Amino acid sequence: MLVLSREEVERAIAMTEAIESVRTALVEFSAHRTQTPIRSHLSVGQAAGTALVMPSLVPNSEALGLKFVSVFPRNQAIGKKTTNGVLVLADINTGEPMALMDATYITVLRTGAVVGLATQYLAQRDAKVLGVVGTGEQALGIVSAIREVRQLDEIRLFNRTEEKAHRFAEAVRQDDPVNCPSLRVVATSQKAVEGADIIVTATNSTTPVFASECVRPGCHINAVGSFRQDMQELPTELFERGPHVFVESVEAALQETGDLIVPTQLGLVTAEQVHELGREVQTLEPIRQPADDADITIFKSVGLAAMDMVVAKTVYDRAIGLKLGTHVPV
Question: In this structure, are strands 129-133 and 244-247 parallel, antiparallel, or unpaired?
């Protein structure tokens, strides 16, 4: 079995490859050619944490495996990472474990990649201003992916801890110091999203993080933080404006995230108004057309194991070619 560290996973795959792997996974999932059950949630009450178990089989990509990931927000107070995890990839022909890799970066990578994919197809083609609410590790992958698909002039950053937003800004600068857009840390979430062409929310909030009236017509929103029924980043009033809503899995999204459960219970959203991204990205033609430029689009991500497995298989194949990792007997 090949064991890959986070650093080796990072060396093995570029964001552009991750975006294509995610597109493949979503197309296969929406065509019902995967086995991807809704993930299991384990609530760890004494630590206010959540453990997630996510298996998937994607035959066309020869990807079979399971991801275990934990989200413990209190870890920040003791200097530890909020998100930790491991991913096991198995041989699709024999079932033998063939790779064990750090799942924290896989999660960052595939979350960024799916947001990049959604932005590529749903955001206005001339989108220039990005507003980011929540500047944790997940947001780094997201900003990197969005910059792959749109030429940004300005990125506005908000975090409840301002110092964290400044550290995030520095990390973005270091990622590409030559072509880096203007980076501005703002004092409120409202200032981050007002007039923005693209909005990202990546928080652990249980209440909406901005007001509906701050969202301009034509904006595209990527909401990735809410993955439980008691979490909600998006204002319920936003759904009164008739946005087009896209998700990885309709079944999972309508069961798992307060961002959609709350407006659904109020009759503001029906299942017929929620569309799977994998049905829309089978061609290279963007979903948004010039006539749609006043429409608000929302991509609500809750994660999908099929994406993790296809990305992990790409990582594994590249790692073998690059001679990365350590082989251990099992």
Answer: unpaired
